């Protein structure tokens, strides 16, 4: 009788532990559901570079988006990719004012890869312009502006659905 009880007790114990500690969700599946976003930055100013870094961080933390780091030529025909192009420039006139403010040009667009038979004079992709913003941001407002830009991307993506 004792020989039969031990396997039963072990089975009940393992079952109780499994219920207390369910397996972790499959993060690779959750990650694959996120929409890739391509960031293109031109500029070497301190505040603008910090803004783009913070924007990338916000996208990485997002439950909806991930940074697209793949090859654009390898996108499947018919698939689309949101892209944020940022051009930054320090607004300082005097040297001692450098690194305080930057002018930002933020262009949000959605690129759609065309099937090979539709390539031609117009190229291999269609582009939908979602919005374009010109603004000046100070070093203390970089985080807020990155969050606002991500919110603008959300509105653009909702409009496309």
How would you summarize the topology of this molecule?
Elements: H1 2-20, H2 27-32, E1 35-42, H3 46-61, E2 65-67, E3 80-90, E4 101-113, E5 125-138, H4 142-160
Parallel strand pairs: 1-2, 1-3
Antiparallel strand pairs: 3-4, 4-5
Helix pairs in contact: 3-4
Please provide a written account of the structure.
The structure is a single chain. The protein contains 4 helices and 5 strands; from the N terminus they run ααβαββββα. The protein is globular and about 55 Å long. 14% of the residues are buried. α3 links the parallel β1 and β2 (65-67). Helices cover 37% and strands 30% of the residues. The chain is α/β, with parallel strands linked by helices and 161 residues long. α3 packs across α4. The protein has a 5-stranded mixed β-sheet, with helices on one face. The protein has a single domain (27-160), classed as Rossmann fold (3-Layer(aba) Sandwich), CATH 3.40.50. The model is unreliable at 1-27 (pLDDT under 50).
Mean pLDDT comes to 81
What topology, given as strand order, has the largest sheet?
A: 2-1-3-4-5
The CATH topology is what?
Answer: Rossmann fold
Figure out the total of helices: 4
Largest sheet: 5 strands, mixed
Number of domains: 1
| Helix content estimate | 25-40%
Measured distance between first and last alpha carbons: 64 Å
**What value does the Rg take, in angstroms?**
24 Å
Unreliable spans are: 1-27
Shape: globular
User: What is the class in the CATH system?
Assistant: Alpha Beta
Strand content: 25-35%
């Amino acid at each position: 009788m004792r020989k039969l009880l031990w396997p039963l007790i072990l089975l009940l114990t393992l079952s109780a532990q499994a219920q207390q500690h369910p397996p972790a969700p499959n993060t690779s599946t959750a990650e694959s559901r996120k929409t890739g976003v391509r960031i293109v930055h031109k500029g070497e100013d301190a505040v603008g570079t910090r803004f783009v870094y913070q924007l990338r961080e916000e996208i990485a933390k997002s439950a909806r988006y991930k940074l697209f780091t793949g090859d654009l030529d390898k996108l499947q025909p018919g698939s689309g990719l949101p892209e944020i192009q940022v051009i930054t420039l320090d607004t300082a006139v005097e040297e001692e004012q450098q690194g305080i403010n930057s002018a930002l040009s933020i262009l949000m667009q959605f690129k759609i890869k065309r099937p090979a038979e539709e390539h031609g004079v117009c190229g291999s992709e269609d582009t939908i312009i979602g919005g374009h913003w010109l603004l000046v941001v100070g070093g203390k407002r970089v985080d807020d502006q990155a969050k606002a830009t991500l919110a603008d991307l959300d509105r653009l993506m909702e409009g496309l659905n």
